[in-house]
Design goal:
12% strand, single chain, 12 strands, 3 domains, 11 helices, alpha/beta, 3-stranded antiparallel β-sheet, Rossmann fold, 5-stranded mixed β-sheet
């Protein structure tokens, strides 16, 4: 892409810069805008590819980055000198473009990538298995065989689900089959092989997992009995696949998505509260579900309270700085007056010196108060950074444990973590907490 724009004479180099939304979003108020500007400066004359762009929709810090992005793309420093690509699925990109009305006009070009055809998926799977030294057998090559057509049917259903990841999921299936081949290899048979049965099992397992991730109830039918739907006698049609969307602008935008559902804010009555957009798992009691929503709201309230406290401390420090500047200015004026009034009486000079000393002591008090406030804020930020890092490690460990097959985000509770769907719980002691 960078070479393409270079050859067209739009960009001055063939270089490109790849980053994620997290490179633009800071952890504290007022820091996302400078980080966004710095990233854009690094991308001048290049293609700037922003992965995980959907995350710019989430929270005030993401919106701050979006607003800065919109503002910068109208300035002479960046106009016509950078190509920006925001990467994500169509639904996520559309949600992002709604964050700021000016974003659409700055990213007028869109490129939509449809899902791979089932035959292409099988070709890719075959190639990856061959690269891993895995033998499939001739039956896989018989494109008119009943087994091959059944594989095609499963892949068609997979590609109709909004959670289908195309080549990424094919790679996941390839890894699973490779692991199965190594596990099944015996000492007497040094070759690594997988059978059509193995491939069917891997695809059906993926299909069951993908259905569980779909938030649309009409996508939950499973004729094989994998996931229950509203009616056991009817299998609703799957919704059309969600294409991969790239929006571009010659000042330019594209998108990937997070498998974890987004927690969104919804207006309720006169107030605003956090809701869980993840679907409620089957069999979850009202009591557990209500407690889960309460925990989500409590966690959000705690995070909001902390950010408001940090913002208040930052404003307090700015006030101290302004007082310090005014005090230094007053001290300078008093010193000038003292120097220029050498002809004044001794009492007048002593009075000026007294005022000068009082102002100096006052300024010293302000300085110490400012330094104490800065130290307090530094400790709060460090503690919050440690908490975020610890939470990130816990979330990663929970994902690696694979307890929740739908891949939902985990919500902190008093004695452990519960998945956002409600059905799965991991106590603190299993996480080493």
């Amino acid at each position: 892409m960078a070479e393409y724009f270079y050859e067209m004479g739009i960009l001055s180099t063939k270089d490109y810069l790849e980053c994620s939304a997290s490179d633009l979003i800071a952890q504290f108020v007022g820091q996302s805008a400078p980080r966004t500007r710095d990233t854009l400066r690094k991308g001048l004359g290049k293609v700037l590819f922003i992965d995980e762009a959907y995350r710019l929709c989430d929270g005030e810090f993401g919106r701050e980055a979006v607003n800065e992005l919109v503002d910068c793309l109208t300035k002479p420093l960046f106009v016509g000198k950078i190509v920006i690509i925001l990467a994500g699925y169509t639904e996520d990109i559309n949600r992002l473009l709604k964050v700021n009305p000016g974003l659409c006009s700055r990213f007028p070009e869109e490129v939509v990538f449809g899902n791979m055809q089932p035959e292409e998926c099988l070709t890719l799977l075959h190639r990856q298995l061959q690269q891993n030294g895995i033998d499939i057998g001739s039956e896989f090559q018989e494109t008119r065989s009943e087994s091959y057509l059944e594989l095609i049917a499963i892949l068609k259903e997979l590609s109709s689900l909004s959670s289908w990841g195309n080549g990424r999921d094919i790679k996941t299936i390839s890894k699973s089959l490779t692991a199965a081949a190594y596990e099944g290899a015996g000492q007497s048979s040094p070759s690594l092989t997988v059978t059509m049965v193995d491939i069917f099992q891997a695809l059906k397992s993926m299909l069951k997992s993908q259905r569980a991730r779909c938030t649309d109830e009409t996508q939950l039918g499973d004729s094989s009995g994998g996931v229950a739907s509203k009616s056991l006698n009817q299998r609703p049609e799957a919704s059309p696949p969600m294409p991969f969307n790239i929006a571009t602008s010659i000042s330019c935008a594209t998108g990937s998505t997070d498998p974890n559902p987004v927690m969104e804010k919804e207006k309720v009555g006169d107030g605003s509260q956090l809701i869980n957009s993840s679907p409620r798992d089957l069999g979850v009691s009202d009591e557990i579900w209500q407690q889960l929503q309460a925990n989500i709201a409590a966690n959000e309230a705690s995070a909001k309270s902390l950010q408001e406290s940090i913002a208040a401390q930052e404003r307090n420090i700015e006030n101290f700085k302004e007082k310090e500047i005014r005090g230094e200015h007053t001290l300078g004026k008093l010193q000038e007056i003292i120097m220029e009034t050498s002809h004044a009486s001794k009492d007048e000079i002593n009075d000026l010196k007294r005022k000068h000393e009082e102002e100096r002591l006052h300024n010293l008090t302000v300085k110490h108060a400012k330094e104490a406030a800065e130290e307090s804020l530094r400790k709060v930020r460090e503690e919050e950074a440690r908490r975020r890092q610890g939470e990130a490690r816990v979330q990663k460990k929970l994902r690696e444990m694979g307890v929740c097959p739908a891949g939902f985000r985990w919500v902190k509770e008093r004695s452990g973590y519960r998945c956002a769907g409600g059905a799965h719980f991991v106590p603190n002691d299993q996480l080493g907490l």
